[in-house]
Structure formats: C-alpha cells, structure tokens
Amino acid sequence: MNILVVEDERNLADAICRIVQDAGYVAEACYDGRTGLVSAKSGLYDAVILDVMLPNVSGIEIVHQMREEHVATPVLMLTARTSTSDKVEGLDAGADDYMTKPFESPELLARLRALTRRQGDVVLDELVYADLVLDLSTHDLRCGDRSVHLSGKEFEVMRMLMSSTSRVVSKQDLLTRVWGADGETSENSVEAYISFLRKKVNHLKSKVHITTLRMLGYRLEVFPV
Ligand code: CA
Fold first, then answer.
1. What is the predicted pLDDT for the residue at 196?
2. Span from the CA of 73 to the centroid of ligand 1 (angstroms)
3. Which of 23, 36, 136, 166 could disulfide-link 30, Cβ–Cβ 3.0 to 4.6 Å?
4. Inter-axis angle of helices 84-93 and 59-68, to 10 degrees?
5. How far is the CA of 82 from the centre of ligand 1 (A)?
6. Cα of 109 to ligand 1 centre, how many Å?
7. Structural domains of the chain sorted by starting position, each given as residue range(s) with its CATH number in brackets
C-alpha cells in the first residue's frame, strides 16, 4: 500500500514515513501544500496523512479539493492544536479521521489500518494480467501451477507494472513510488529489480514479458508461446 505524507516539518514527515515503512507500507513525503495538493489529487495512494497547517495550501483546503474532484482516497488529518474547530473543519471538508500531534506510532498505525480497511471495494486480493496472478497478501507470483515468492521491492515494482497494464511505467515513477524519498537509490537499482523480475517471470514460463521502451520505461506485454 502506498501512503502519501503531507507535512512541512521535515523531521516529522520523515519520521512518519519511517514508521509506516517499517510497518510494510510504501511512503512518500511532500513538504508543502502545493505539491501535496497535486499528489493527493492524483488518486495514486491508498491513504493520505495530511497536516492541517501547511505553507501555500492548507490541509483543510487540500482535502476539500480532493473531495470536490471525487478523489476518494482516505485522509487522516494531523492537527497540532487541540481546538475542536480544526477537527470539525477537517472532518467537514471530507477527512476520514484526525489525530492530534504529538502522537505515538502504534496509534498512527492503528488509525492507518482502520482507514485502509474501510475502502472495501478498493482493496484487492490479487492482480491478474494475462496468465500471471500476483497475490497481494502473500506476495507470491503465480502462473498456472508454478509460483515464486517476490521480495518487498520486487513485489512493489511488479504491482505497479500489473496495475497499469496499458500505460508505460517510467523509471522515475518506480523510483518515487517504490523507493520513496530515499535519495540514495538510482535508476540502476530499478534496472536490477526489473532484471530479477524478468528471471522470475521467465522461470514461471509465463507468456508475459517486461518490455523496455527506450527513454520511456517499462510495460508488460503478452507474447504468444
Ligand atoms: Ca505544519
């Protein structure tokens, strides 16, 4: 699951990212309201952790615009103040839950679990593309009666490729969505993981190939056997 964290206090944003990453989510941080708004409206995340007090565009305004444009991603608001007006305003604007800063990581994770569970129709058990089945709970990739287990990053890369069967997934997309704000990762890592995945898909004797499109990225294609 991909979690967007919008929080201008970098230390706190990075700490939240680490907490949710340690719990097995993929996390990405935005440090101001304007970029947070664009990312939140993309609909590409399973949940958004959103600070109220942000430069440029407030958290309340972000959730308001998301709901106005029918982006249904669950939103957990972070409020520094204990004043009820912030909470009421946030919930009225369309937030699903709120949490007062400072908070303990178990509480954050419990609220996140509750939020992502609530999207009943969005949570899938498996992704299917041609003869490939990706089990989203066990991280096994199957083809017929053959099966391989995918490591954490392999799973996230494969999930992105299988979620977007028509469009191309760029290396940059993979870097930001799978590796998040980890600035030390380079495009070479993406290539390495694509190569691991090709070997596994090949081992499964699937008709699916991970095709490289020069300068653009990767796409799944079905080749006749
Ligand atoms: Ca703030």
1. 95
2. 21
3. 36
4. 20
5. 14
6. 20
7. 2-118 (3.40.50.2300), 126-222 (1.10.10.10)
At 90-103, the pLDDT tens digits run 888 899 999 988 88
The pLDDT tens digits for 133-144 are: 999 888 999 999
Phi-psi group of 60: left, alpha or beta (phi > 0 → left; psi -120 to 50 → alpha; rest → beta): alpha
- Ligand 1 centroid distance, CA of 86 (Å): 13
Model pTM score: 0.55
Distance, CA of 121 to CA of 123 (rounded, Å):
6
CA of 15 to the centre of ligand 1 (A): 14
